[in-house]
Amino acid sequence: MDNNEIENSIIINRRAAKDNEFIFSYNDPISNVERLFKYIELISDLKIEKIPREELPYGQGLEGYRVHKKDLV
Question: What total of structural domains would you count in the chain?
């Protein structure tokens, strides 16, 4: 559905997000995706962890995540 169709449509039914659906606004901070990461960890053999600030370039306001298999932890 394109923007024109969305603007000219009437929504008659809504549903709650399912367990495997994660909805974010464009303005949500990146830290809000941690719910998504926890779900991925729950259903897979992946581990997603926040990279400690001391491992990132200093003074650039960066935030990062590391992904690896759980058996390599």
Answer: 1
Could you give the CA distance from residue 49 to residue 68 in angstroms, rounded to a whole number? 9
Instruction: For 57-73, write each residue's pLDDT tens digit.
Output: 887 787 888 999 988 65
How is residue 38 written in tokens?
Answer: 């926890």
Q: How far apart are CA 20 and CA 57, in angstroms?
A: 33
Structural domain span for residue 33: 19-72
Q: Are strands 65-69 and 46-50 parallel, antiparallel or unpaired?
A: antiparallel
Residue 14 is assigned to a structural domain of this protein: no
Mean pLDDT over 41-57 rounds to: 90
Exposure class string for 25-44: b at 16+ Cβ within 10 A, else e: eeeeeeeeeeeebeebeeee
Give me the torsion for CA of 17, 44, 69, 62, rounded to 10°: 0
